[in-house]
Design brief:
By secondary structure, this protein is an alpha/beta fold. Helix content is 38%, strand content 23%. The chain is built from ten helices and twelve strands. Strands 1, 2, 3, 4, 5, 6, 7, 8, 9, 10, 11 and 12 form a twelve-stranded mixed β-sheet that branches.
Length: 302
């Protein structure tokens, strides 16, 4: 399914979970894997000195420094290189991490980018503790042409990558675009596809919260929308199920994913009616990313 996978890493413990998924996914797909690491940000205009992203110290980017970093990264992922090193290429770059990741992804036309939710090695739990994702991940997910698979926790349910996929929709145009990726992924690997919608009962219109009759009407309309917009695209594929719950959307998504032992959640990066380049990551997908037990694919474009 995937021919080229880009694993963007700071080689810190915060990326360990993403590394396992990236190598496993590449191995299962027989894909070429690019292990991409940014050395640091130039300290001055055209200077050959960079501010090392891990140590925070200025380093001269010469051959010796590059060789040292490459050896460090190879040592960090020694076990994975031993298993899949023949189809893994290490790429080092200098610059702003998000910019360089996007530049390389465009150049190689990768099918998928794999990242951790946060790459700070001094605070590997920060994404979970602060309930926000890292700026690098957010920018890459927003601007990348390909889906971005975000891995924030040890993946305990995705040993058979992937068998239970939960696609979440709020019926926005962006969510419709994400469905194309969910549909192709499920059909290509024969995974169970759950089409899930959570009616947000916490939002009030004119200060009035929805009553039971409103909830039931919304659920009925949601079933019709799912049938029209998604099931009609599945063709003969019948390995799917539809669920509609009510509550706080990110809470219901996480509960549903846990109940179905999901190994992948697919969501749109945002649902606002704006150009993808201008959209911040949606609050629902952000909360799912930092709390999900399985990887989350953020799709900004089909």
């Amino acid at each position: 399914m995937f021919k080229k996978i880009l694993f963007a890493t700071s080689a810190s413990p915060a990326c360990d979970n993403a590394a396992k998924v990236a190598f496993d996914l590449a191995k299962r797909n027989g894909a070429k894997l690019y292990l991409f690491h940014v050395l640091g940000v130039p300290s001055r205009g055209f200077s050959t000195t960079v501010r090392d992203l891990r140590s925070g110290e200025d380093e001269a980017v010469d051959g010796d420094y590059r060789a040292w970093v490459e050896e460090e990264v190879r040592t960090t992922y020694a076990e994975q290189f031993e298993e899949y090193g023949d189809k893994t290429t290490m790429q080092l770059a200098v610059g702003v991490p998000a910019t360089e990741i996007l530049r390389f992804a465009r150049k190689e036309d990768v099918d998928l980018i794999v990242m951790g939710a946060n790459t700070r090695d001094d605070d590997p739990e920060s994404a979970r503790a602060r309930s926000i994702v890292g700026r690098t991940m957010e920018k890459v997910a927003r601007l990348a042409k390909s889906p971005v698979l975000i891995v924030n926790r040890p993946c305990t349910t995705c040993w058979n990558l992937f068998s239970n996929i939960v696609y979440c929709t709020d019926f926005s145009k962006a969510a419709d675009q994400a469905f194309k990726f969910a549909n192709s992924t499920a059909q290509t690997i024969g995974a169970k596809l759950y089409i899930f919608h959570a009616f947000d009962i916490t939002s009030a219109k004119l200060g009035v919260f929805p009553g039971q009759a409103d909830i039931e009407r919304h659920i009925e309309r949601a079933h019709e929308k799912i049938k029209e917009r998604y099931i009609s695209q599945l063709g003969d594929y019948d390995n799917y199920a539809v669920e509609i719950w009510e509550g706080t959307p990110y809470v219901e998504i996480l509960k549903f994913a846990r109940e179905k032992k999901a190994d992948l959640i697919i969501m749109a990066h945002h649902t606002k009616e704006v150009e993808p380049e201008e959209a911040s990551i949606g609050s629902t997908v952000e909360q799912v990313v930092v709390r999900s037990a399985c990887p989350v694919a953020s799709v900004a474009r089909a």
